[in-house]
Amino acid sequence: MSRTAVLLHGRSIEVSDGVYQERKDKPEPLLEELLRSWMARLPGLKSRKKRIRKLIEQTNAFEPEIQQLNSDDLIKNLASNADLMRHQGFSDDLLSRSFAIIREASLRTQGLRHHDVQLIGGWALLQGTIAEMQTGEGKTLVATLAACTAASAGVSVHVITVNDYLSERDANYNRKLYEFFNLSVGIIQQGMSPAERKKQYGCNIVYVSNKEIVFDYLKDRIATSNATSAHYRLRHLYRPHQTPQVLLQGLHIAIVDEADSVFVDEARTPLIISESVPDENGEELYGTALDIASSLENGKHFEISNDRSIWVKPEGEIFAKELCSDLTGVWQSSLWRNELLEKALSAIWCFQRDQHYLVADNKIQIIDEFTGRLMPDRSWEHGLHQMIEFKEGCEITGQRKTLSRITYQQFFRRYLLLCGMTGTASEIIPELRRIYDLEVIKIPTHQPSRRKHIGSQIWLTSEQRWQAVAERAAELSIAGRAVLLGTRSVDASESLSRFLTKQNVEHTVLNARQDQEEASVIAQAGQPGHITVATNMAGRGTDISLSNELADNLGLHVILTEFHESPRIDRQLIGRCARQGQPGSFEACVSLEDDIFKDHAKALLHFTNTIPFFKSTIPQWYLALMVRYAQTKAERHNAKMRIATLKNDRKLQRLLAFSGSSI
Q1: How far apart are CA 654 and CA 178, in angstroms?
Q2: How far apart are CA 556 and CA 578, in angstroms?
Q3: Which of 186, 293, 433, 619 is the most buried (most CB within 10 A)?
Q4: What pLDDT is stored for residue 489 in this prediction?
Q5: Measured distance CA(313)–CA(317) in Å, rounded
Q6: Residue 333: phi, psi to the nearest 5?
Q7: All domains of the chain in start order, with CATH
Q8: In 9-129, which ranges are E strands?
């Protein structure tokens, strides 16, 4: 058995076969969490400028010497530097030499030389922080600095992306550099067998999506758990003298790309491993529930909250009881009747086709509301998924019984060193600090930004907005601009597409229906006169490469057609244009009928509708006020939901009497 000791953040850890290293997840006192959140709002007390400047100067000073080395000597130099890091940790002096070696190797193998600002990004990662880098600044290449450095020191590195496509793309993009230093590269993809997964996790650097690694971790926890019942049914397959075969080698270092999406946007619900259980008389039950729920009136019999929760009012309970007077079984129990009706009402009123889910191959496929991508292996809990399947006439799947669960907040806190990259972290600094104990370091851009804000327009109805957007896109296309039109849902993207088609405007649509063609669609989005209609995905994680004509002249123009609950999502879409010093512009064209105003700015919306002056025009300052008010309210609500999710999981752990790192 091979053993290696590595100094990581001042603590020596053993990295060896059979040792599953991870940080113990112990709930911290609430006061300490809140204090971290409050401190994150204060300006930095100590400047890192001198330290960063010295790192860049030292790295550049090493460059002439490093350039004279042949390939074998480059490899030996990094190995000897790694030996020192095992005992001294990731000190700035050692990192500067390591970065100089990796930069030279990258230039030789990939033709890419890390910019000085990318060196800062690599340094920030190995300090266990979030590197906030603007879109297009080369985060994929930045990750190689930290990954090569840590892996050469003998630490297992997980580079975590938001989907399988990006995992495979980024791993293959950097493979030549990693293999130059004899570092093996693993890629985890959906559908891999356990044996293949174990083999891939055994590599020095592993590229994997956030969902895949969390579920693999849950499988390891089940296999090694000391708990009984459901866990035991999987664990009993091992004889007493056998060691359970785990997939991962522990949680050493995680480099999380699009960190805000992973840590915040997708952290509202826990991840669950479950098994199917028989669902007798399910179709009859769901059909009856939907029929009864269809007879109830919104506002009179039930209420819907902003977070899509349903509350059946006393009037609704009495009315439902009357409708169920001839029914037997569960319908005579007020508890079961209300539970079924709430699920049926949610299926009818709160979850809409082409916005929250798609129907494909006679199956319900959930759409990630923040990324616009499909989540084919996810399902809603407690019968809601089956209720929606019946509503859409799909095959009814069995309900699921939970075997193990964990939140993203709990999982990522278990890494010995956690870091990440994103272009949009400023708005969530307090939450990152409170939940993950992560600081954010803002990295300057390599080139000054040339992005121009054209302005914003707001229309009374959605129809007026789509008409205006279609006309504006056609006008820009004729002028030779590449245009990206961002929408919030599949339904919205297809509505806009119909308006463009009516005007005989050629365009391409990118949404959850075309997610397999994302790369090819994005590849064409930077051509003169090309119009792309996209949902939130909008090529996130990929660059829209502009033709030489556009890069030298006009650049890409982005039209935001609806503001999102989080301003970060808006910034991500806007960030598609004017990358790395290129020209580009953006504008917003929205409607008073947009969900964000109806859900989170009802008072202002009512005021707007009652003032005659606003019937003809809405001033820019008032629109900005409405957007800021609605987004602030929505962000606070979503943050409370994420905190509640974490608290509920901790409470569940205590109730189940799990200890240490068990789930």
Answers
A1: 43
A2: 7
A3: 293
A4: 85
A5: 6
A6: -100, 120
A7: 3-13+22-269+408-442 (3.40.50.300), 279-397 (3.90.1440.10), 450-593 (3.40.50.300)
A8: 11-16
